[in-house]
Amino acid sequence: MFNKISNVSILAKFDFVLFILVGTITALGFVVLRSATASMNTGASIIRTQIISIILGAVICIVLALLDYQYFKYLGYIFYGLTLLLLIYVLFFGYGREVEGIGSNSWISISGFMFQPSEPAKIAYMMTVPALLVKLKDDFRISTLVLSILAAVIPIVLILLQSDLGTGTVFIVGLLAVVFIYGIKYRYLLIGGVFAVGAAALAWFYLLDDYQINRIKALINPMQDVEGIAYQTAKARIAIGSGKFSGSGLFEGLQSQQNGAIPVKESDFIYSVIGEELGFLGAVAVILLMTLILLWCLRIAMKTQDKYGAFMVTGLTSMLAFHFIENVGMNIGLLPVTGIPLPFISAGGSAMLMYFAAIGIIMSVSASSRSS
User: Fold this and answer.
1) End-to-end CA distance of the chain
2) Contact partners, residue 312, CB within 8 Å, separation at least 6
3) What is the pTM of this model?
């Protein structure tokens, strides 16, 4: 039932290249975060949480990497069910929308521990949906098709009901990537595209909050309201531009070291801190590191002969890629502002654990491919 990988030594099957790449960008991110939070009253608390998240995330990553990923196919159903309950729970007891009509109620607190259920839900989603699609591909049945559609759609709907469009889009991108390599016929993709356009129109008029619509409008005309809806992007672009080629130096950024100059500089707009303090060189270094990570993950997906492994790695890699592209894009004014953090760099315990868990699963698939 499961791949026999136990006969191969741990060192031989462990993907050190991917682990070192992730460790490098995480270390760089931690240094930048330390600088970004130096002037903040909550800086020490943010750094403490980040250290704990990195250590715990690294442990989770290693443990998952050493497990046979075929177990995830079955454990994923349980994990999926638990995260689904948490996503329902957050609809009634979640918080995070500090101002009415702005933000999303996507956080919950259990025994004093605050986290976003949507983060572990990403991992559960990419354990379960690929497993159902593999079953559907091997033995097509209407019942399996219906179950696959429900499993794919329900978490997205629950997240969109939180008014968390950014995270909902992460799930959609991951799903589309998996469906694409599943081998769906182009006419179905065309039909899906038509429905997507219709859904986008309905969302624009009936689902999106005013601030979300205004952020999209600000993308089209960024100079329309630089003191209002476009304020965040305007400040981020100023900071990035002031960094020039080599940056002002860590802890020396004029914008980065002023509280309020760059909004949410520890998370959503930390890339602007990189641009100002490390300059063009630092900004490009982050892009190159993340690109290498994503390409290595895609290489793993292409090398594995197992459909479940390929589907799962593709979906997780696509989610990470969207996080990266969206965060950088909104910092430089090419994409609308969302609450999507920069992988392995932005502050946030829930997200950091999700990144490391995703990498651990991908490394597990890599290990299995090497042993076989």
Assistant:
1) 14
2) 69, 72, 126, 127, 130, 361, 365
3) 0.89
Domain containing 278 equals 10-371
Q: SS3 helix, strand, coil % of the chain, rounded to 5?
A: 70, 5, 25
User: pLDDT of 191-249, one tens digit each?
Assistant: 767 777 777 677 666 666 666 666 666 666 655 655 556 667 778 888 999 989 999 99
Q: What are phi and psi of 102, to 5 degrees?
A: -130, 130
| CA gap 165, 247 in Å, rounded | 33
Say if 66 falls within a structural domain: yes
Is residue 325 within 8 A of residue 338, CB to CB? The reply is no
Tell me if 5 is assigned to some domain.
no
How many whole angstroms from its chain centre is CA 301?
18
Both tokens assigned to 116: 């976003």
Cα separations in angstroms, 361 against 71, 112, 119, 317, 334: 11, 28, 15, 11, 31
Decide if 2 is inside a domain.
no
Domain total of the chain = 1
Both structure tokens of 97: 């929308």
Task: Give the number of other CB atoms < 10 A from CB of residue 218.
Answer: 23
Residues β-bridged to residue 102 = 99
- Domain assignment present for residue 23? The answer is yes
Phi, psi torsion values for 115, nearest 5 degrees: -160, 170
**Phi, psi dihedral angles at 114 (to 5 degrees):** -95, 135
CA separation for the pair 72, 358 (Å, rounded): 12
Chain position carrying tokens 């793993």 = 300
